[in-house]
TrEMBL record:
Gene3D superfamilies: D-Amino Acid Oxidase, subunit A, domain 2 (3.30.9.10), FAD/NAD(P)-binding domain (3.50.50.60)
Name of the protein described by the UniProt record: Glycine/D-amino acid oxidase-like deaminating enzyme
GO cellular component: cytoplasm
Family matches, as SUPFAM superfamilies: FAD/NAD(P)-binding domain
Record InterPro entries: FAD-dep_OxRdtase, FAD/NAD-bd_sf
Stored Pfam families: DAO
Tree of life domain: Bacteria
Source organism of the structure: Nonomuraea fuscirosea
Residue ranges constituting the FAD dependent oxidoreductase domain according to the UniProt record: 36-394
Length: 464
């Protein structure tokens, strides 16, 4: 179908948030108050932090402040791939922290197991389904890189199954696939908005005071405590945890480490039984292709296909703006790629189109830290892979606040910071040239130009 026609009736809003299951907002903060711990941000990062703070110490008085609505940002508009990796994939972790990759992989799987157990404990229904992820090669140069780390993967005891052309097409029927690698245990598919609302309900059940539509405007260190000013009240707290993603940071130093990158997605109408049968997809894995600019796609529980990725857009100036959440040029491109991948679904139309902002950092995986004499902690920089990893980051923040060393806080990955981005306007120039170079590499059999090779040597990059 012509992409423009297929998109004609698509709503301009995130599919997951457009649900009758969305709860009404909790009350705004309207008076001054005190707390043991204030968590700022009602995305996965803040929700996991508040929930696990209460689980660690039920007597702690915890307040969560969210500027808009729980899960409205990246948390409620992502692909719903809940991955074990804490390092934005094995290859990135291996490149940066080879001596601790076995521990990082183990802790990632434990984190995913714990997410599953938490959902059971609180009865959170978010269609969590441990299908794994199917990595597919669609160009000959990608086949080799797909199987690059197979020896190490088996040494680490990870459950990956290499698939040849016929085997991968038997899993998911696309004429574009040349080979695949099914990462079986390291990824679950879920509905991210229902996860966020479920975590909110669990927080409320444990006594966290959740205030939505309560943006923190500024922060002041009062010595033993920190005061957070919101439009209608001040919270004075002994401890503060920031889970504010890529939004203008309350702690100025974070500006240097994260940049806003917009990622876009489409949702189709539900497939008919015949349409689904034409693709197969009996194991319902999440799928990711293997270019530097990649698509990610998956089935929803009512057999729609979420189709996203490819264009990761940095808007010069680095602002976060509502108008950037819609980009017709990208939607048309994505729809075209969908039909190239699944020509048998030429009649399928799209019902939703949206974008969201990612907190990209130069090492692609989150970083952690403390400020104000250890009274404030933060975690940011999940670079498009935070659905699962934010729970690990929340645990790191709570470990740091406790002051007790743990296996997590001993990791070099946790102790080190990413290399900062240069200030604007140099930042825009560097990022746009890097994006152009990445697109060139995809067009030239993955060959990286001098610029990308220089960045690789410095351990720097741009990703989503
Ligand atoms: C289109 C898209 C697809 C993605 N797909 C995947 C995927 O499939 N798998 C995956 O692992 N990751 C994916 N991601 C990334 C993932 O969604 C994020 O890593 C994760 O949601 C980050 O959660 P967070 O809580 O850190 O940030 P956010 O969800 O951005 O939440 C931050 C919250 O802090 C609040 N806030 C900020 N400042 C203040 C303040 N001063 N006062 C009060 N509140 C404040 C904001 O309002 C916001 O609600 C995707 C992201 C996008 C955009």
């Amino acid at each position: 179908m012509d992409p423009l026609k297929a998109l004609a009736d698509a709503e301009r809003k995130p599919y997951w948030l457009d649900s009758p299951a969305r709860p009404g907002p909790t009350p705004r903060l309207t008076a001054n108050t005190t707390a043991d711990l204030v968590v700022v941000g009602g995305g996965f990062s803040g929700l996991w932090t508040a929930l696990m703070a209460k689980e660690r110490d039920p007597s702690l008085d915890v307040v969560l402040l969210e500027g808009r609505r729980i899960g409205w940002a990246a948390t409620g508009r992502n692909g719903g791939f809940c991955m074990a990796t804490l390092t934005h994939g094995l290859a990135n972790g291996l490149e940066r922290w080879p001596e601790e990759i076995d521990r990082l992989e183990r802790m990632g799987v434990e984190n995913l197991d714990e997410i599953e157990r938490t959902l059971d404990r609180y009865g959170v229904d978010c269609s969590f389904d441990r299908t794994g992820e199917l990595h597919v090669a669609t160009e000959p140069w990608q086949v080799e890189s797909l199987n690059e780390h197979l020896d190490l993967i088996s040494e680490l005891g990870l459950d990956y199954v290499p698939l040849d052309r016929d085997q991968v097409r038997a899993e998911v029927g696309s004429p574009t696939y040349l080979a695949g690698l099914w990462e079986r245990s390291g990824c679950a598919m879920l509905d991210p908005a229902r996860l966020a609302w479920g975590l909110r309900a669990a927080c409320l059940r444990l006594g966290v005071r959740v205030h939505e539509r309560t943006p923190v405007r500024s922060m002041r260190d009062d010595g033993g405590t920190i005061s957070l000013r919101t439009p209608y009240g001040v919270v004075t707290a002994r401890r503060v945890a920031l889970g504010t993603g890529v939004f203008p940071p309350l702690l100025r130093r974070l500006r240097h480490f994260v940049v806003p990158v917009y990622d876009y997605a489409l949702m189709t109408e539900p497939l008919t039984a015949d349409q689904l049968a034409s693709v197969g997809w009996h194991n319902r894995q999440g799928v990711g292709d293997s270019g530097n600019r990649f698509h990610y796609y998956r089935l929803s529980d009512d057999n729609r296909i979420l189709w996203g990725g490819y264009d990761a857009v940095y808007y010069n100036g680095g602002l976060v703006k509502a108008e950037y959440e819609q980009r017709d040029e990208t939607f048309v491109k994505l729809a075209g790629h969908f039909y190239d991948t699944f020509p048998q679904l030429a009649d399928v139309r799209f019902t939703h189109r949206w974008g969201g902002v990612i907190d990209t950092c130069s090492r692609f995986s989150a970083f952690y830290g403390q400020a104000h004499g250890g009274r404030l902690v933060y975690a940011a920089g999940y670079t498009g892979m935070g659905v699962g990893a934010t729970r690990f980051g929340a645990n790191v923040m709570l470990d740091l606040l406790s002051g007790e060393p743990t296996e997590r806080t001993g990791l070099r990955m946790v102790r080190e910071k990413p290399i900062p981005f240069p200030p604007e306007p140099v930042r825009s120039g560097v990022i746009q040239f890097t994006r152009w170079s990445i697109a060139q590499a995809d067009q030239h059999e993955g060959r990286r130009n001098l610029w990308l090779r220089a960045l690789d040597r410095m351990g720097l990059g741009f990703d989503s």
